[in-house]
Amino acid sequence: MLRLFVGIGFPPELKLQLSLLCSGMPGAKWVDPGNFHLTLRFIGETGESLAADINEALARLRARRFTLELAGTGVFGGADKPRSLWVGVERSPELVALRDKIEQALVRVGLAPEPRKFSPHVTLARLHRPPIHTLSGFLATHALFRATPYPVEGFSLIASFQTKAGSIYEDQADYPLLY
């Protein structure tokens, strides 16, 4: 069984920009900068046969290249129980169109539709009872964060392996986007 998701990887320069945000927050378990990515669709535990079907469906998908802009910070879980800290993604019709094509392809091979609304982000940290005033300060300080725009030339099927030190991600297949 493989634990899979579909995502967009980042170049080293963008990972470095994001990593510079990763400090000054008690209760934060920071994501390893090598693992920064944008999840387009979480799939979960999958057998090899279904993984092969997923790969074939994604390989047939056609979409155009586009530019991605990361901007701002926020939390999931709300002010009372924040559980993760993230960098947002500027509105991008091309990103949403790609995500929708991926969703349609995965549903066609038998996966249940994703029930959650697509909320593109890059997770910076998992939070465990951070001091709310410190978290508010972090969000205010980084509210105007903007990364250098990044040309998205493809996406990947990625396996996640859990270890004591954290998750390790390994690309299973890469899918280029069209010019």
What are the key terms here?
179 residues; alpha+beta; Cyclic Phosphodiesterase, Chain: A; four-stranded antiparallel β-sheet; 10 strands; 38% strand; globular
Write a structural description.
The chain is an alpha+beta fold. It has one domain: Cyclic phosphodiesterase (Cyclic Phosphodiesterase, Chain: A), CATH 3.90.1140.10. It has four helices and ten strands. It has helices at residues 12-19, 48-60, 93-108, 132-141, and strands at 2-9, 28-30, 37-46, 66-68, 70-76, 84-89, 121-127, 150-152, 154-163, 166-176. The strands form three sheets. A four-stranded antiparallel β-sheet has the order 3-1-9-10, covered by helices on one side. β5 and β6 (84-89) form a beta hairpin. The N and C termini lie far apart (35 Å). The mean pLDDT is 96.
Q: CATH homologous superfamily, by name?
A: Cyclic phosphodiesterase
Radius of gyration from the alpha-carbon trace, in angstroms = 17 Å
As for the number of domains, it is 1
Give the mean pLDDT: 96
Level-2 CATH architecture: Alpha-Beta Complex
Give the count of helical stretches.
Answer: 4
Low-confidence stretches: none
Task: Determine the strand fraction and express it as a percent band.
Answer: 35-45%
